[in-house]
Amino acid sequence: MKLNGITDVFFDLDHTLWDFDKNSALTFEKIFKINDVSLSIDDFLLHYVPINFKYWKLYREEKIEKEALRYGRLNDAFEAVGFQAEEWLIYKLSKDYITHLSTFNHLFENTFEILDYLSVNYNLHIITNGFDEVQHKKLTQSKIIKYFKTVTNSEMVGVKKPNPEIFNFALELANTKVSQSIMIGDSYEADILGAKNIGMDVVFFDLNNMTLDNNIKQIDNLMQLKKYL
């Protein structure tokens, strides 16, 4: 069912448009080679992915700072896989990861197609918890920055999704109202509940077949947004 009265569409970036897991895996493959780290990427990622998720939750909840996230997720993953990495190497890999992450820019299927479709009738925006210097590179080098009128990141605002302040900041930056806006994202906690808490409509981009309240619109392919917009 098409939604009426929507003028502004807000997207999350990582895991929604930009294929974070794929690009991250390729980045680790690259920096392990650069730094002569003899470790199976598959074994490492098996531990790293849930550890990274845990650290981002702590970061989102303002319980740790950016540097603690960058170091801790690597240190814990190496410990979990039984690889002894000296402190200097973890810091080096942490820095190299940020440097090289945006050199890989795989997007989810139909990203360009849906942005082309939506940009005709809607103002498009980004709200992301990602780091400022990295997110700008991702948007630029993946060639999707041209679609977005505004980009709001957590470092600009000083708080992270689901904090209502970041959504209100993004609405003000976009010069729009909550009643005319919709949020599309993959994080149920950060994107969906965060937006709903300020009264914004939402679409949950869910690749994991989560069972949710029937009142929440869900898609597993970006082209399914055509049902609503």
Can you put this structure into words, describing what you see?
This protein is α/β, with parallel strands linked by helices. The protein has two domains: 8-18 and 106-227, HAD superfamily/HAD-like (Rossmann fold, 3-Layer(aba) Sandwich); 20-101, Putative phosphatase, domain 2 (DNA polymerase, domain 1). The protein has nine helices and six strands, in the order βαααααβαβααβαββ. It has helices at residues 20-34, 41-60, 66-81, 87-101, 111-119, 132-141, 154-157, 164-174, 188-196; strands spanning 8-11, 123-128, 148-153, 181-185, 201-205, 217-219. Strands 3-2-1-4-5-6 form a six-stranded parallel β-sheet, with helices on both faces. The longest helix has 20 residues, at 41-60. It is elongated. The mean pLDDT is 95.
Radius of gyration: 18 Å
String of helices and strands: EHHHHHEHEHHEHEE
Strand order across the largest sheet: 3-2-1-4-5-6
Helix content percent band: 40-55%
**Secondary-structure-derived class:** alpha/beta
End-to-end C-alpha gap: 9 Å
Largest sheet: 6 strands, parallel
CATH topology of the largest domain: Rossmann fold
Question: Could you tell me the mean pLDDT?
Answer: 95
- How many helices does DSSP assign? 9
Total number of distinct structural domains: 2
**Tell me, what is the CATH class of the largest domain?**
Alpha Beta
Please, what is the CATH homologous superfamily of the largest domain?
HAD superfamily/HAD-like
Poorly predicted sequence stretches spanning 5 or more consecutive residues: none
